[in-house]
Specification:
heterodimer, A: alpha/beta, 2-enoyl-CoA Hydratase, Chain A, domain 1, 2 domains, eight-stranded mixed sheet, 14 helices, 16% strand, globular, B: alpha/beta, seven-stranded mixed sheet, two-stranded antiparallel sheet, 9 helices
C-alpha cells in the first residue's frame, strides 16, 4: 500500500493504521479504550475532510494518475454489459492503447472508445501507457462512423498523458489522425459524450473529445500540456511542475468555471480509487442521464449545437 | 603538452552583432553570412552559402502569394486576452504587450481577402514572430471568422502556417481552438469550397494536429520542419539518434502527409493553377 501512497495520504494512512492497532489492543473493549478509538476516528474523519477540501492542483494531478485509479477497461466492465471489443483501423494495425467496442449501459446500446493505461508492468507496456498511435485515432474514427451508421450514441473515456511522440507515430501522421478526428467528430450525426476519467493530456485527449457533452471526474485533469512539459518549456526548469499545475488551471472546478466542461462527476472521499464501486455507479447514472437527453434531439440539431458549443470557446477582446 | 598550450587567450571571431542596414543587407541566421537583399530575393530567401531558408516576414509572404496590393485585412481588431492570469518567467500580459508592440498586431494571425492572378481568396497567415505563431483564443477566433467569411462570400480558403503549436499560456482555451478551427473547416468542406494549407518552417504541435493538416491540398516549402511532437521530445522518448531529414518536408511527402513541395517563387503560379481546378468547371 505504501508504494501507491500519495504524499498527502500519508498522515491519513498513519492514523488509520493507529486506529486498527488500537482495535486489536488489550483495552479495545474497555470503556477507556473505546473512548480513545472514538476520539481518533473523529480526528480521522476531520483530517480526511480537511485534506480533501484543500487539495492543491498538483495533488489533483497525482490523484488523476494514481496507479489504483479505475481505468477505461474497469469502467467498461463495471458500468455496462455484453461488451464486444472491435479491433483495428483497417489500415495498419490494432492500437492496444485505445480500446473500442459495443456496450450496453442501463439498456442503452452504444459505441465505447477508451484510452487504457494498463495496470502492472506487462500490461502497461502492452497498452503503451495509454498513449495512442495514429492507428488508435483512426480506429476510434472508424468506430464512431459505424456508430453514426447504426444510430448508436458514442461514449469516449479520456485517460492519456498524450498522443505517443515517437518515430512511427510521426511517420504515419499523428497530427493528421488527430486533426481529422476533430473535424469529423464535430459533424458526427449521432449523440456523443466524453468523460475525462483521469488525465486529459492535450491533443491526444481532444482527439476523442469533440463531443456534445464533456464530463470530468472530480479529480481528473484536462490541459494543453502536462505540468512537467509546461515546466520544462516555459519555466525552463523541470522541477517547477507543481507551479505549472497551478498556472495551467487544469482541474474540473477550473474548467466548469470557464464553461469548457458541462458537468463534474463527484468522486468518493479520497478519490475514485478509494471506492471504485461508488464511482462506477455515479458515472453510470450521469451517462444515462446525459444520453437520455441527447438521444431526444434530431441529428441536425445535435450537430448545430455541438458546433456552437466549440465555436464559443475562447477568450479574446475586440 | 604544455609546450603547445597558448599563453594568450585564443583568437576568437568577432561575434558581436553587426550593425547592418536591413533594407540593403541581411545576415544569415544559420552561418552568419551577410547577403545583399537583392541577391536574397533572387534566391527566394535561401542562403547561397549554407542553404538556410530564411523565415519570411509577413510582407514577403504576401509578395510570394498574392497579386500586388490586393490584400485587404479583416478582423484586425480581435486581440489577445489573458483568461488564466498566467505567469511563467514573465507574466503573459507582458509577453502579449511585447509581441503587440514588436509586430504592430493584436494576434499572431493576420487574415483577409486577396487575389491570386485575379482570383479572389480568403487568406490568413500565422506570424511566427508573434509568440512563435502559437494558436490562442484570438487566433482561433480569427480563423473561424475567416472560414465563415469565406462561406458567406463563396471564396476558397488559404491558410499559411508557421507555428510552435498551441499557446501554453491559454491552456484549455488554446487546446479548444484546435476543435473550433477544425469544426469550422468541416462546415467549409460541406459547402464544397476549397481549402489549401501551406506549411512553412516550422509548423508543429496543435497547429499541425488541427487546421494545418486538413487541407484539400497540403503544400510545404522545401526543408521545413513539420511535425506533431518536436524532434527534441521524440529523442527524449526513444533515446536514439533521429534519422537524417526526419520530419522535414521531403520526409512528409514520402510518407504521404502532403501533396507537394513547392519552392517559394512558384507559390503563386501553383496556387493559381490549383484554384482553377478546384473552382470546378
Amino acid at each position: 500500500m505504501a508504494f501507491n501512497e500519495l504524499p498527502f495520504e500519508k498522515p491519513i494512512n498513519e492514523l488509520k493504521k493507529m486506529i486498527n492497532e488500537m482495535r486489536s489492543a488489550a483495552d479495545a473493549e474497555l470503556p477507556s479504550g473505546k473512548a480513545k478509538i472514538a476520539r481518533l476516528e473523529k480526528k480521522l474523519s476531520a483530517l480526511i475532510e480537511s485534506t480533501y477540501k484543500n487539495l492543491s492542483a498538483w495533488d489533483i494531478v497525482m490523484i488523476s494518475r494514481h496507479p489504483q485509479r479505475p481505468y477505461a477497461m474497469d469502467y467498461i466492465n463495471n458500468i455496462g454489459d455484453n461488451f464486444i471489443e472491435l479491433h483495428g483501423d483497417r489500415g495498419f494495425k490494432d492500437d492496444t492503447a485505445l480500446i473500442g467496442g459495443l456496450l450496453e449501459v442501463g439498456g442503452i446500446k452504444l459505441m465505447v472508445i477508451g484510452q487504457e493505461k494498463g495496470r502492472g508492468t506487462d500490461e502497461k507496456i502492452y497498452r503503451n501507457f495509454g498513449m495512442a498511435h495514429p492507428e488508435g485515432y483512426r480506429k476510434a474514427l472508424r468506430l464512431m462512423k459505424m456508430a453514426e451508421k447504426f444510430k448508436l450514441p458514442v461514449l469516449c473515456l479520456i485517460d492519456t498523458s498524450g498522443a505517443y511522440p515517437g518515430l512511427g507515430a510521426e511517420e504515419r501522421g499523428q497530427a493528421e489522425a488527430i486533426a481529422r478526428n476533430l473535424r469529423e467528430m464535430s459533424v458526427l450525426r449521432t449523440p456523443s459524450v466524453s468523460i475525462v476519467i483521469g488525465e486529459g493530456g492535450s491533443g491526444g485527449a481532444l482527439g476523442i473529445g469533440v463531443t456534445d457533452r464533456i464530463l470530468m471526474l472530480q479529480y481528473s485533469t484536462y490541459s494543453v500540456i502536462s505540468p512537467e512539459g509546461c515546466a520544462s518549456i516555459l519555466f525552463r526548469d523541470a522541477s517547477k511542475a507543481e507551479t505549472s499545475a497551478k498556472s495551467l488551471k487544469l482541474t474540473s472546478s477550473d474548467l466548469i468555471h470557464f464553461g469548457i466542461i458541462d458537468r463534474i462527476i463527484e468522486e468518493p472521499i479520497g478519490g475514485a480509487h478509494n471506492n471504485p464501486h461508488e464511482i462506477f455507479a455515479s458515472v453510470k447514472s450521469a451517462l444515462i442521464e446525459e444520453l437520455g437527453a441527447l438521444m431526444k434531439l434530431p441529428p441536425n440539431i445535435l450537430t448545430k449545437k455541438r458546433f456552437n458549443k466549440f465555436r464559443k470557446m475562447g477568450v479574446y477582446n475586440e | 603538452m604544455g609546450w603547445f598550450s597558448r599563453k594568450n587567450k585564443p583568437v576568437k571571431a568577432d561575434n558581436s552583432p553587426v550593425d547592418i542596414n536591413k533594407e540593403v543587407w541581411r545576415k544569415c541566421d544559420n552561418c552568419g553570412e551577410i547577403i545583399w537583399l537583392k541577391t536574397l530575393i533572387e534566391t527566394e530567401y535561401v542562403c547561397g552559402k549554407c542553404g538556410y531558408h530564411f523565415r519570411l516576414t509577413f510582407s514577403e509572404k504576401i509578395r510570394f502569394i498574392l497579386d500586388e496590393d490586393s490584400f485587404r485585412e479583416l478582423f484586425a481588431t480581435v486581440g489577445t486576452e489573458d483568461p488564466l492570469d498566467f505567469k511563467d518567467s514573465l507574466p503573459y500580459k507582458k509577453r502579449i504587450a511585447k509581441a503587440e508592440s514588436q509586430n504592430n498586431q493584436r494576434s499572431a494571425f493576420i487574415c483577409g481577402e486577396g487575389r491570386i492572378d485575379g482570383k479572389d481568396v480568403a487568406i490568413g497567415f500565422l506570424n511566427f514572430e508573434f509568440m512563435g505563431g502559437s494558436l490562442g483564443s484570438a487566433e482561433g477566433e480569427k480563423i473561424a471568422r475567416l472560414i465563415e467569411h469565406a462561406i458567406e462570400n463563396r471564396r476558397p480558403v488559404i491558410i499559411v502556417s508557421s507555428s510552435g503549436g498551441a499557446r501554453m499560456q491559454e491552456s484549455i482555451f488554446s487546446l479548444m481552438q484546435m476543435a473550433k478551427t477544425s469544426a469550422a473547416l468541416a462546415l467549409l468542406d460541406r459547402e464544397g469550397l476549397p481549402y489549401i494549407s501551406i506549411l512553412l518552417d516550422p509548423t508543429t504541435g496543435g497547429v499541425t494536429a488541427s487546421f494545418a493538416m486538413l487541407g484539400d491540398i497540403n503544400i510545404a516549402e522545401p526543408n521545413a520542419l513539420i511535425c506533431f511532437a518536436g524532434p527534441r521530445v521524440i529523442q527524449q522518448t526513444i533515446k536514439q539518434e533521429l534519422p537524417e531529414g526526419f520530419q522535414k518536408s521531403e520526409f512528409l511527402l514520402e510518407h504521404g502527409m502532403i501533396d507537394m513541395i513547392v519552392k517559394r517563387k512558384d507559390f503563386k503560379s501553383t496556387l493559381s493553377k490549383l484554384l482553377e481546378y478546384l473552382n470546378g468547371n
